[in-house]
Specification:
Layout lengths: L11 H16 L3 H12 L8 H15 L5 H11 L5 H11 L23 E5 L17 E13 L9 E14 L5 H4 L14 H4 L1 E6 L2 E5 L7 E4 L3 H7 L2 E4 L15 E3 L4 H10 L1
Parallel strand pairs: 6-8
Antiparallel strand pairs: 1-2, 1-7, 2-3, 3-6, 4-5
Helix pairs in contact: 1-2, 1-3, 3-4, 4-5
Length: 279
């Protein structure tokens, strides 16, 4: 884990611990269970300089703020800061030695799930918003189409992936641009937009399979088409007015890797599509 600052929360370990601690509480584990889970999760990091100290100080701060400070965590933290002269740690010492705060209720834990099925067709009208390259852009206010072709699962912190994961659809750009959304019959004959100059993008669009006598053998996937991980919330989809124009109710679940696929958000969606359609 990297370190990018001197203050208590200006390092990766502290930020990871803070998020993971709250996540476990939201799932519904008891205070003691969460504390033990945090210790088991981060104890491998204790060997690195200052990591064990950071762990107990951050855990004490988080437990105190949420009304869950245990005697064990308090004693560990105080042992590390008893002779400290920095204002931040003196303030932390004063906090955890003060009257405990009321136990705070934790929000609900939820995992993101795709709003779409594999095989669904989506339509989106490209807008001028956030388009950085407006020169020679003839795609604004035109509809483009995508097909949902797979699902990507991403881990949530250090939670076990077999139980806890966020899921996002992978969408493939169709080879069509128009002023009106096609009807069902027209949709059935539209093919995928193919990549041009695919060999120039080999490193990011092919997954390494094996290393044979020092030479990488590349395993071709489905990257001859243009695919994105659809990293949008339900609210953002509504604001962008992305429409499902065909729903595949007999969809097969297809899980794919996110490697080599661009993540599209409400901020980069227009520019990403325009760039891929113009190249």
């Amino acid at each position: 884990m990297g370190c990018w600052g001197d203050k208590l929360y200006q390092n990766d370990l502290a930020q990871d611990l803070k998020e993971e601690y709250k996540t476990y509480l939201k799932i519904g584990y008891s205070d003691l269970e969460v504390e033990n889970m945090m210790i088991n999760s981060f104890k491998e990091e204790f060997g690195e300089e200052n990591n064990e100290k950071i762990f107990w100080l951050v855990l004490a701060d988080q437990e105190f703020k949420l009304g869950r400070l245990s005697t064990k965590t308090k004693e560990k933290a105080l042992n590390y800061i008893k002779d400290s002269e920095t204002k931040e740690l003196i303030d932390l010492k004063n906090r955890i030695e003060s009257k405990p705060l009321e136990r705070k209720k934790m929000g609900k834990f939820y995992m993101k799930r795709s709003l779409y099925n594999v095989g669904d067709i989506l339509a989106y009208k490209i807008k001028s918003t956030n388009v950085t390259n407006k020169k020679n852009n003839n795609l604004t206010d035109k509809y483009v189409l995508f097909e949902v072709t797979g699902m990507v699962r991403l881990n949530i912190g250090c939670l076990p992936m077999n139980e806890f994961y966020d899921e996002y659809p992978v969408i493939t750009l169709l080879d069509w641009v128009g002023d009106e959304i096609p009807n069902k019959e027209q949709l059935s004959i539209i093919s995928y937009k193919k990549r041009e100059k695919i060999e120039e993008k080999k490193i990011i669009n092919f997954l390494p399979e094996i290393l044979d006598n020092g030479e990488i053998k590349w395993k071709k996937k489905d990257f001859d088409t243009i695919q994105y991980v659809f990293f949008l919330s339900k609210r953002e989809i509504k604001e962008l007015n992305i429409l499902r124009v065909y729903e595949n109710k007999k969809a097969e679940y297809i899980e794919v890797t996110c490697v080599g696929r661009s993540f599209v958000t409400d901020k980069n969606l227009n520019n990403t599509i325009i760039s891929d359609l113009n190249n």
